[in-house]
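Protein modeling request. Please complete all fields; requests missing the sequence field cannot be processed.
Requester role: graduate student
Desired output: 3D structure, token encoding
Chains: 1
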Amino acid sequence: MYIRPPRQSDIDAFLAYRNDPASMAKVGAAPLSVDGGLELLTKQMSKGEADPGWRMFMIVRKEDDRVIGETGAFLRLADEREADIGWWLHPDCRGKGYATEAAKLIVAWCLEYIRVDLVTSTCLADNLASRKVMQRIGMEQEEAGPNANGVDEYRAIIRANRAAEKR
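Delivered output (167 residues):
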């Protein structure tokens, strides 16, 4: 598995996992149209690697070069450099370690390339699969409980260890 920037040719695979009815119901989102999906992919394609805001990468399975999902980071690069990471997989690719692999890659990109000080990830509190991914990649629980909208969430963090670089 590897990650790469999106392409317009990813549209069918993108809509296949993004518009999964069970996932859409869980997050309370409306399905994306082809035009809406192409607009999102095109916007992502035009971003520089370190531009603030959402930066998306496609998760691609090596053995068949199939786009199976996405990972990315919402970059906040002001005084405190932070990234909030996430992932979204096609239903038939869940539970196979792809999210953990992708999360490790996006954390490394955030810490080593973008050089953020803090990486966070947030999911619905009952999303045990994403919570396990966060734990597997070494994130520590920061908080759990209702957000501003009263929805129970789980949040975990990894802080950059720059002490060794200062020597």
